[in-house]
Amino acid sequence: MISTTIDSKRAVASIFNSAIAAPAIGAAWELGLLDELRDQKTVDVHKFATQHDLDSGSMQALVTALAVVDVVERDRDTVAAGRLLDEAYRTKSLFHWLALGSGGLFSRIQYVLRNENREGAFYHRDPAAIAYACRDINRQYFDPVFWAAMNGLDSKFHSVVDLGSGSGERLMQILDQYPGTTGIGIDLAGPANKVAAAEALERGFGDRLSFIESDARNLGYRDEFAQVDLLTCFMMGHDFWPRENCVATLQRLRKAFPNAHRFLLGDTTRILLDSNRSKHAVTEENVPIFTLGFEFGHAMMGVYLPTLEEWEGVFAEGGWHCVKRDLIETPSLSVIFELEHA
Known about the structure:
- There is one protein chain.
- This protein has helices spanning about 10-30, 35-40, 45-50, 55-70, 85-90, 90-100, 105, 110, 125-150, 170-175, 190-200, 245-255, 290-300, 310, 315-320; strands spanning about 40-45, 70-75, 80, 160-165, 180-185, 210-215, 230-235, 260-270, 320-330, 335-340.
- It is built from 15 helices and 10 strands.
- By secondary structure, the protein is an alpha/beta fold.
- A 7-stranded mixed sheet has the order 6-5-4-7-8-10-9. It has a 3-stranded antiparallel sheet with strand order 1-3-2.
- Helices cover about 45% and strands about 15% of the residues.
- Helix 11 (about 190-200) links the parallel strand 5 (about 180-185) and strand 6 (about 210-215).
- InterPro entries: Methyltransf_25 (IPR041698), SAM-dependent_MTases_sf (IPR029063), WH-like_DNA-bd_sf (IPR036388).
- This is Methyltransferase domain-containing protein.
- It holds the Pfam family Methyltransf_25.
């Protein structure tokens, strides 16, 4: 919560300016400016715009937005790292997810909140941008815990399915690490699947990796699932909820993949909105980055976000046994559950 000791005009101006800077951080990352700043220390804005075929005037405005919030420092055409560059770089994909991937949702709050409008496809997000951001979110926050869990598996696996595969990066990394394995990515977003399939082909995975456009919540058994012995699912488990739907989905996955010895399920849990019953709840005075955007956005989409305790209460009924849970403290409270057939 913004301190009341700060001048109110300056404080509200900071809110406004931050709303502009948030998409600027995401865009600066995707355009390569943040990486060049970290590598080269200083960047000539005009030369950067020319080299990347960018509009020079717009690029100057983007840099100004970053300078206003101390991400960069500028001297005419030259920009250098600002006081907050390192932290902004570390959290860049969260800004991208919020402002670019979910911008179409947050720009329509006044429309989405009206019950008369909440039918059919009543909101829009950019699935390709979401996949782009989640790729880095996975690498930054989930991967260290994920690979520790993978290295600790008590049995070998030969075929892996990733539910909500997005960019396909997790599957490609798994196939790189385990050369004898095959993989299937399942995602409802057709554009993300096309991007993933093209990259998989470019990286030489050939017939080892394929992608299916389907809803992971309603999967039935297919012949190609018979040999799958490992399931993974990251950053989409909340789409299984509310509770009765989640239990049904877990049961369907149990039947669709009868030989899956392990299911690694990672997601971010609810700790702010109506989270009083969770021991991990935070107050409005101490909200971490990502939490407010993640929970507010999913509330508007009508997607129920479970607490950690609510997740732990569905596995047995869904046909799975939780062998272990690995907590990830940032960007909000995230967790990887290691499940096996009950």
